[in-house]
Amino acid sequence: MKLRLRKRVSSRYMARMDMTPMVDVMFSMLVLFMVTAPMITTGIPLDLPSADNRPLEEGDAALNISFNREGVIFIGEEAVEPENLVAKIRAIRGANPNVRVIISADRTVSYGQVIELMGRLRSAGYTQIGLKTDAQHWRNMSQ
Length: 143
Description:
Oligomer: single chain
Distance between the termini: 97 Å
Number of helices: 4
Structural class: alpha/beta
Shape: elongated
Helix content: 25-40%
Strand order of the largest sheet: 3-2-1-4-5
CATH architecture of the domain at 62-142: 2-Layer Sandwich
């Protein structure tokens, strides 16, 4: 009598994770962020005047003060009453004395309002004041 020896088949399963759904989700999120990121960066809609200018360096700290079409003043994205403006900017200067100020004013805001704001900034101790312009518009016109 001959004994047959059976070859033992390994019942070990190889656990593999299907990466396709995860890649699909990550690609969808990448596209979502690429589409929405440019919309998030602009907080206050302004029609800036154009000029040829040098952008700020990466390490430069800047405080953005904006005027919209209606003449409302914003520090960052927070609306500020004109009578509270000097107190707020003095407090910011106390926290960071080396901060630069960038004024972003809509094209329709009067020159006098911008000059008045610059005077208030000077009285609060700011000496480095810049005006933000739309450089891309200028580059397109010169080409």
